[in-house]
Structure formats: structure tokens, C-alpha cells
Amino acid sequence: MMQMTCTQLSDKDCFYISESRNKLLSYPIHCHADYELNFMEHGRGVRRVVGDSDEIIGESDLVLITGKDLEHVWDRTGCESSDVHEITIHFSADLFGGSFMHKTHFQSIFTMLEKAQRGLAFSEECVQKVYPMFNALVGEKRGFYAVLRFMVILHELSLDEQARILSSNSFARVRHVVDSLRVNKVQDYVEEHYMEEIRLSTLADMVGMTSVSFSRFFRHSTGQTFSDYLIAVRLEHASRLLLDSHLPIAEVCFECGFNNLSNFNRIFKKNKHCAPKAYRENYRKQKIVI
After folding, report:
1. CA distance 144 to 32
2. For residues 122 and 62, what is the distance between their CA atoms, to the nearest angstrom?
3. pLDDT > 50? residue 290
4. pTM higher than 0.85, yes or no?
5. Engineered SS bond to 118: which of 9, 68, 95, 172, CB 3.0-4.6 Å?
């Protein structure tokens, strides 16, 4: 299993900033309890891995990670730039404790921090907007005003409607909670029985509905059909098994509720853009325990 690492953030600090230029630092994939906001420019070709998200970044990249179990790394092996500029800010969840920070004015920030448990990549437009703010923050020597600048950055980021969630729930170990007791009851059942055959009629009876009514209700409440939801849950567990075990792919397939290997390979490749074997091999190149 991945071991959790410690950042340089102390209990007395609101946040800790590190800046590097032209340094080809090599870190193994890791996770930590502190929140992380990572900005990179001139990093075209860098491979960013956040949970089960694996992407090659462009000229600039800005990602927020608040999940303490969410593994991540920026691998510069494929980057040919000699002018990589990186700013990393670590801050604690404690910064947002107390009644003051729970006022309405901070609601968008709280919503953003919750989404970022799965990793949140911000749009290019947003990056360009906050870039001068990052430089000003790095140069700010007065502690109080540095905190104010940091809060403004978080606020501007929270307004980015094009920000993308990166990782699936299972990698961040985050449960997507819907404001419906009936949907949550179904989700609990699926988490316990995803490896078995699950009939729509069984779930409909569980919440006192007909199968047709339940299908409409579930889609309205979650934004996806139950069939798509079940496949997503099974794929998340299959992805985790591929990386955290040495089980043969066929066994992973059946352990996660897929009853046909060729069908599993087809669905996995459609959703993860690579075959299960390649997915396991590519990820393990980065998975070094520290």
C-alpha cells in the first residue's frame, strides 16, 4: 500500500510555499494529509498522475488536491523544457475551521475543496487570470497580507466553471453522497454487492418503487442511469485491484462483477483508454513506495 508522506507545513503556518525553476526533481508517487495547490508553466510533456487520471500536460497546469489518500506525481521524464517553473502551496484543512470560515461568502471555496478530494484541474483561462497573483504571493514578505492574497487566489479558482475533476471516487476513497436517503441506500447496497448479479427489480423493491419509476428516479437524482453507475463502480474496484494486487486480469474481471472477460476488456478500454494490462503496467512505473 502507498505510504503517506509529510510536507514541510508546520502547525504554526497557514500555508507553505515552495518555488523551483529549471530543476528536474524526481519524486515517486505519493499522498499526504495536507492540501496541495500545484502550478507549473513551461512543462509541456510532463506526465501528471492524480489517482487514476494519467495525462500529459500542456504549456501550463494548475491542480488542487485535497484528498489525503489521493496518490499523485508530476513526472518530468518526457519534458524537454529547460525552463520549467513550478510553485507548490501546501495548506491544512484546519485553515478552514471555525464558524468564521463557514459563512456564506466562503461557500464557493468549500465546494471547490470538496470536489478537489478527487483532484481538480483548472482551465487555461483561469490559470492566466491567477498567474500574476501567484507571483505576487511568492514575493509577498508580510505574513498577514500573504494570507489575504492566498484567499483571493482560492476565491478566483472557486469561480472557474470549467475546472475538471480528475480521479474516480475509489482512488480518492471518496463517497459521492446524494441528498436522498433512497439513493444512498442503493449506493450502500451496490458497494457491498457489486461483485454479484444485481437486478433492477431488487433495488426497486428495496426503495418501494416499480422498476420503471426507480430507473427514472435514479437518473434524475444522480445524473446517470443505474446501469452506467454500476459499471462505474465495478470499474473503479477493478482499477484498484489491478494496481494493488497481482491477481490475473481474468480474476479481477470476475471479482468485480463482470461475467465475461472480453466484455470487461472492451468496457475498460472504452472508459480508461487503454487495456487492463497496459493500465497496470503504465501505473506501476510510477508507483514507488516511500
Report:
1. 26
2. 6
3. no
4. no
5. 172
Q: Which of 267, 207, 183 is nearest to 175 (CA)?
A: 183
Indicate whether 130 pLDDT > 70: yes
| CB-count exposure of residue 230 (10 Å: 0-12, 13-18, 19+) | middle
- The closest of 72, 61, 166 to 119, measured between CA atoms, is 166
Q: Looking at the chain, which runs of residues are DSSP E strands?
A: 4-5, 15-21, 31-32, 35-41, 47-50, 53-56, 60-65, 72-75, 85-91, 120-121, 164-165
Q: State how far the alpha carbon of 188 is from the alpha carbons of 105, 177, 179, 230, in Å.
A: 34, 10, 14, 12
Contact 2, 243 (CB under 8 A): no
C-alpha cell, 98? 471555525
C-alpha cell at 33: 494529509
| 105 C-beta neighbours (distance < 10 Å), count | 10
pLDDT beyond 80 at 230: yes
Q: Reply yes or no on whether the pLDDT at 178 is more than 50.
A: yes
- Tell me how far apart the alpha carbons of residues 173 and 237 are, in angstroms, rounded to a whole number: 11
